[in-house]
Amino acid sequence: MAALNVRGVTKRFGTLDVLKGVDLEIDSGEFTVLVGPSGCGKSTLLNIIAGLETPSSGTVEIGGRVVNAVAPKDRDIAMVFQSYALYPSMTVRQNITFGMECRRVPKREREEALGRVARLLQIEPLLNRRPSQLSGGQRQRVAMGRALVRDPLLFLFDEPLSNLDAKLRVEMRMEIKQLHQRIRSTIVYVTHDQIEAMTMASRIAVINQGELQQFAEPDTIYNRPANLFVARFMGAPPMNTVAARLRTADGTLYAVLGEDRPDAVRLALPNPPATASEGDEVVLGIRPECIAEEQRRFGDDPRGSVTVEAPIEMIEPTGAETVVVLRLGGEQVFGRLSPDVKPTIGELSRFTLDTRKLCLFEPKNGMLIQ
Amino acid sequence: MYNTGLTWRRCLVYLVLVVLAVVFMVPLAVVVLNSMRTVADISQTSMIGWPREWAPGNFAVAWSHYCIAQTCEGIRPYMWNSMAITLPATILSTLLGAVAGYAISLWRFRGDTWIFGLVTLGVFLPEQMKLIPWVLVLRDLGLINTLTGLVVIHVVQGMSFTTLFCRNYYVAIPLDLIKAARIDGAGFFRTFGRIVLPLSPPILIVTVIWQFTGIWNEFLYGVTFVTGTQQPVTAALISLSATVAEVPQYGVQSAAVLVAAAPTLLIYLFGGRWFVRGLTAGAVK
After folding, report:
1. Count of A-B CB contacts under 8 Å
2. A284 contacts A255 by C-beta, under 8 angstroms
3. If interface means Cβ-Cβ distance under 8 Å, which residues of chain A face chain B?
4. How many CA atoms lie within 13 A of A150 on its CB side?
5. Do A98 and B186 touch (CB under 8 A)?
6. DSSP assignment, residue B196?
């Protein structure tokens, strides 16, 4: 059963179209991440699902019931806010039980639920403190506790980790993921951080300018982005996208970068899309990790690895790998080398490319050529 | 190097400050000294001077015996009038202003900025401009020459200030708190009572001090809308000085002025610290 069904939801503020007709169907137990740049409408969508804002058109269904006219408190949802939104004058205990108090849940039941959540999140020693006496990570936990205590049909997370420092963010990321695996609840999680999206989601919805770009498993989003926006948004550094022309030679389809230049690069396409043909202008997408030092081999099939020569323009050693900026057919692209390779700036060097995961996009509309 | 010694520059600064302080203190000093002098003392020498003999009895006379208009009960009944106007008007206007400021700042609705603009317009309207409208309103309500009438006036007029103060304080409260409360199932008043009000003491102290001193010291409406024994102490003080006596009773009058000013002075002494803190405190963290 679909835990959440969003159909044709639009939102207009004055003349500004924040959401231009979004459809989402989320199954029970799924961890869905809404990701996109700031101002793309993802938080507005979450607020509409929560009932904190009303859509200009379209319907929202939670647990098979249309909730457009239902107040937030009656939607069977719980929400974790970016700012945590803990009530400053209440203790942790009161913060967590306030919702039940508003619903006139008997005191004994409240205490039971509180105890269960406090144990789950290991915040028992904090129950009598006020939010101002807690660290960022502890506040985050309490905010989650306030949501968990409800045991709702749907959890909504609005960038819950973006106020934490980098180290804590990674820890909490793991913890939320583990928590989801343990309690198997349905989660809709908003973030602008594509790494959070990749690591946590069972499905990712990429949103840009009020439109859903792609809604798929992380692997598909990463390796088969539906369009150039998704390709360039996911991954750090993002997918390289360069202009190319398709040529046929000896029955093989090639993508040629910088066709009219002396340093043109020809890449054989091991599994070309059916609709691609000789002479087409395309945008070629290649992930930085598909450009590596010469010795690297990708897969068992030797046709998957192509060696090219290119000048190195810049080097960024990160420790785990070395990111290089090089020129392929006159276009600037990122590659990721093993840290053992010590490349020199300005020199011509040889690289091996993984051509199995090349993506071709339509230059006019940016869509993936299937 | 930072020079902490007494340089001539520093001496000049202190000299200017002391001179200014003396200038500002002279009227108060004259009143305080006169409140301790006898009629004979003042009339034989001058208004300004050290008491030849101390006459603390002036205060007792001013409080309960002096004749104002036709009655001779001192300013005590008028002090009670002022209290009966100021206390309810302060409390009501502060509470109403807090609720109004909360609604305008945290529950956005269509036209809220217009309503806020209209409410705060009251801050800029001069008192005398509103005299005649208030006469008509009080007449229709049947509240002319009653303390209740004055309470109504001060509550309504005070709301402009208290709404402005509270709204400006509450806009610093993150909207997420209100959203979280809505999801938790708290309504308008529960959210106010349980979440917003506990964050409010700094601004409530400011509005209470502001309203208390403003209403206590108000004079124009006090003399216009009530007469005789219903008047607040500010109006009574004028009647007191206008009383025709053989010799002007400067000593008793000075004592009466000091007594009448005492409540607002006390409020400042005890709340002034909070007043400054509340005005400067913006962020609720």
Report:
1. 62
2. yes
3. 47, 50, 52, 71-73, 77-79, 81-85, 87-90, 98-99, 102-103, 132, 146
4. 27
5. yes
6. I
A102 contacts B183? CB cut-off 8 A: no
Q: Is B196 on the interface with A (CB under 8 A)?
A: no
Contact between B177 and A85 using a beta-carbon 8 Å cutoff: yes
* pTM score above 0.90: no
Q: What residues contact A294, with CB distance under 8 A and at least 6 apart?
A: A307, A349, A350, A351, A352
What pLDDT, on a 0 to 100 scale, did the predictor assign at position B224?
A: 87
Chain A closest-CA separation from residue B284 CA (Å): 9
Q: What is the pLDDT of residues A5-53, one digit of tens each?
A: 999 999 999 899 999 999 999 999 999 999 999 989 999 999 999 999 9
pLDDT tens track for B38-66 = 877 887 877 787 888 887 878 888 888 77
pLDDT digits (tens, 9 = 90+) for B106-156: 988 888 889 999 988 888 888 889 899 999 999 999 998 899 999 999 999
Residues of chain A neighbouring B284 (CB-CB closer than 8 A)? 88
Which candidate, A214, A209, A213, places its Cα nearest to that of A38? A209
Residue A266 CA to residue A254 CA, distance in Å, equals 6
Q: pLDDT-derived band of residue B285, with 50, 70 and 90 as boundaries?
A: very low
Q: What is the mean pLDDT of chain A?
A: 92
Is any Cβ of chain A less than 8 angstroms from the Cβ of B281? Answer: no
In this structure, which amino acid lies at residue A27? D
> What is the model's pLDDT at position B273?
76
Taking CA atoms, A108 is separated from A101, A103, A113, B81, in Å, by 11, 14, 9, 52
Interval B17-40: pLDDT, tens: 999 999 999 998 998 888 888 877
Burial of A78 (0-12, 13-18, 19+ CB in 10 A): buried
Chain B residues with CB under 8 Å of A72 CB are: 179, 182-183
Instruction: Find the helix or strand (DSSP H, E) in which B208 lies.
Output: helix B201-217
- Indicate yes or no: CB of A73 within 8 angstroms of CB of B285: no
Q: Does domain B76-229+256-284 have CATH number 3.30.70.20?
A: no
Cβ of A98 and B199 within 8 Å?
no
Q: Report d(CA A296, CA A335) in Å as an integer.
A: 13
Which tops the pLDDT comparison, B48 or B83? Answer: B83
**A253: which residues sit within 8 A by CB, 6+ positions away?**
A246, A247, A268, A269, A272, A276, A277, A278
CB distance B163 to B119 below 8 Å: yes
